[in-house]
Amino acid sequence: MIDRIMFPTMKDTGLSRSAEDYLKAVYSLNERGEPAGTSELARALDVQPGSVSGMIRRLAEDGLLEHEPYHGVRLTPEGSREALKVLRRHRIIESFLVRRLGYDWEDVHAEAERLEHAASDRLIERMAEAMDHPTTDPHGAPIPTRHGKIAATPWPRLDEVAAGTRVTVRAVSDEDPEWLRYFKSVSVVPGARALVQRSGADGGPVTLMVDGASEPLSMRPAVARRVAVTEA
């Protein structure tokens, strides 16, 4: 399943860094099925709740956000177009840093956060071309195309999988470098396969045997939730 939102390429939107960050945060929250309310956005962006309301109002006035009672804010089609452009820049930069500059996957998120606001569309397209147009970033997340297509990812999280299920790791949350170092150390990376021996449905630890490992791996449900999987 593909979501399609068309946007022109090679265009300077004129949005501020802060506005781009807000749009990307709303997109990420909505993508995970979470409400993008004031408190959720404040946590995601590490800002004071009082400053969120003002930015939401400005972005709504610009036609980029709309408010849904009891559901927080959602992106308008124009807001989605802009959010996907920022997301594409972020994930292309992450991929380039890993593939061409030798960065470790735990170090690229913060770098991409800084560079995504400065890189031109032309530079991003040259990076993508140099890598033969990757479709996923180093952490397994899909990269929006230059025409605004992005693959749907209705993947369950590892803590939601029933015991006895064989899974393939599809993506790992990229926001915390310490957790990325941990997942790499235990071979829980995109493409890895494992058998879930104990589910986290009851709130207890998730236990899995990663293919090639010598012993089972146990992790708290909150940690397992950082890993998206599909049945192998």
User: Which second-level CATH architecture of the largest domain applies?
Assistant: Orthogonal Bundle
Number of helical segments with 4 or more residues: 8
Helix-strand topology string: EHHHEEHHHEEHEEEHE
- Helix coverage percent: 25-40%
Please, how many domains? 2
Biggest sheet descriptor: 5 strands, antiparallel
Question: How would you name the CATH homologous superfamily of the largest domain?
Answer: Winged helix-like DNA-binding domain superfamily/Winged helix DNA-binding domain
Q: Strand tally, please?
A: 9
Question: Helix- and strand-based class?
Answer: alpha+beta
What is the gyration radius calculated from CA atoms? 18 Å
Strand content bin: 15-25%
Give the low-confidence spans: 1-11
Overall spatial form: globular
- What is the CATH C level class of the largest domain, in words? Mainly Alpha
| Average pLDDT rating | 91
By CATH, the topology of the largest domain is Arc Repressor Mutant, subunit A
Oligomer: single chain
